[in-house]
Amino acid sequence: MSRRPNVVFVLTDDQGYPPLGCHGHPLVRTPHLDAFHNAGVRFEQFHSGTTCAPTRAGLLTGHHCNSTGVWHTIGGRSLLRRDEWSLAAALRENGYHTGLFGKWHLGDEFPYRPQDRGFETTVCHGGGGISQQPDWWGNDYFDDTYQANGEPRPFQGYCTDVFFAEASRFIETHRHEPFFCFISTNAPHSPFNVEPACRDLYAADTPCEQYARFLGMITNIDANFGRLRNHLRDLGLEDNTILIFMSDNGQTGVDPAVNATLYNAGMRGLKGSPYEGGHRVPFFLRWPAGGLGGGRTIASLASYVDVMPTLLELCGVPVAAERTFHGDSLAPLLQGATDPRWDERTFVTDTQRVAHPLKWRLSCVAKGPWRLVQRDELYDLRTDPGQRCDVAAQHPELVAELQAAYEEWWALCARQMDDAIPISVGAVEQVEAVLRSHDLRNEQDHALVWDQNQVRRGEVCHGYWDIMVERDGVYDFELRRWPKEAGHAVAAGIEGPDVAFREEGVAPGAEDHYRGGKALGFNLACLNLSGLPQRSVAVTPTDAGAVITVPLPRGPRQVRAQFSQCAGAYGSAYYVYVCRRE
User: Fold this and answer.
1) How many CB atoms lie under 10 A from the CB of residue 541?
2) Among residues 39, 249, 374, 483, which is most buried (max CB within 10 A)?
3) From CA 48, how far away is CA 571, in angstroms rounded?
């Protein structure tokens, strides 16, 4: 073959395995994805991390997510450890153009941004979803502002349409050279904001409006996927492009009142669950020039940590001896090889979502049809796909074997679990760094402010940030309650909407992301840097921020930044802008 294959990877957010027509869903309309499923190679037992950032960490490194520092979606534990070698970096080092479009969720500040991890072209939202605290203030999925190559830029259109359109532009620009295009949609993640026409496709047949919106978001993804395939075909790129479709974790819940009635392909559990429905996901791949397609099903157990070694092998990218993966290349399986060793593989996944990982927490050890859940429950999917009958007592030797596999996995991950993963300030690569409450280190996850509606409600949070001062110098720390683009004073409240939002497209209950705000009346700002005395400044009613200036030598620090009022109430600043004076 004269040219290495292109790679286009489409990853959806919180969709899971069930809501596809080809997987038996009775309502959802996904003709383009169904056709791709029928034309490609599909893994019927493909597994992920059980939540968003962890899966992305494993996909892009070939390492178990917990070992990369990413076992949560907030709290400073969605930052991909600085020394990880990413799929994008590996491909770019070997002559590929690389682009990311949509969701990143592995860090919004240097050195964790996508442009720091191998992507040369980026259009992405902040945090783990549009309207979350790190995202541009007031984004509502329609006509939003995204970070384009690190700079805020307004776009016209619905988020999924924008991300696919920008990806198509990137593909066309680099059509004469090998490229890696990662389209990572935030849809169908909540809030379930979508065009009314998409919602109305399902309004009469679903148990609640939120589910109609969820399915409508998937149908919109499907339409974009169809346009993407046509674009590749029109450019003459389809045959030599490895095209992949996957979801990042199990299907999300939409409403506690109806979640138990949702079509779940016979599986137990939704997003975050250690049961099959929490981490079994679709994985379809097609590469005609490489002989990969034809509607073939692979039953062997495979997982998200297998993706990077697989793609590097298919693309002919050499891997230095010092680079290792926790996953295995699936290329032999894709190329039709049979090897009984695949039947002996074990895979471990878990849901931590705590400050410090806990052994056996919401865990699953998989081997063939067997699932060991939370250390002591054993299920045989051949006779019990819904995981209702615990057979651990009948198979003590197998339970012991799978427990031993977990212990080995835990020991591998635990080598780096307690390391600090600091956000850089004063780096040449980023003039102004922003510390956000989304990334506060905290022992109480429930007390974090990670969404814009929490900022508006004035919820109290406490914690600290790990930072790395990259250069000696004098630093300005500007503490804010509202982000700079919002323009409100620290002590100010908001009456009604302060941003334009698409009312007919916003899901019921999500309106508070875009209007109103509680006045907190703060009048004092305090900054604590580890090893230094506290500094404080008064805040007046008209101040948008409070600036505290500190000389700092190069090195690691912990930062606490708080507002308080005369009545004694206090809490962390939601945003701290840090800049080195030149």
Assistant:
1) 12
2) 249
3) 36
pLDDT at 1: 46
pLDDT at residue 267 tops 50 = yes
What is the rounded CA–CA span in Å between residue 250 and residue 51?
8
CA quadruple 86, 89, 92, 93: dihedral sign: negative
Give the tokens for residue 198.
């998409």
Backbone φ and ψ for 331, nearest 5 degrees, come out as -55, -45
Record the tokens describing residue 122, joined without a space.
């980026």
Strand partners, 302: 46
Distances in Å between the alpha carbon of 462 and those of 447, 480, 572? 7, 15, 5
Give yes or no for a contact between 30 and 282, defined as CB atoms under 8 angstroms apart.
Answer: no
**Which helix H or strand E contains 398, and what residues bound it?**
helix 396-414
pLDDT, tens digit, 9 for 90 and up, residues 246-266: 999 999 999 999 999 999 999
- Amino acid 400 reads A
> Is residue 62's pLDDT more than 70?
yes
Task: Specify the residue for token string 């969820």.
Answer: 214
Say what the pLDDT of residue 102 is.
98
Domains defined along the chain, listed by start: 6-338 (3.40.720.10), 423-580 (2.60.120)
**How is residue 288 written in tokens?**
């005609």
Helix/strand number for the chain, H first, E second: 11, 29
Which band of pLDDT confidence, cut at 50, 70 and 90, is reported for residue 443?
confident
Is the pLDDT reported for residue 575 higher than 60? yes
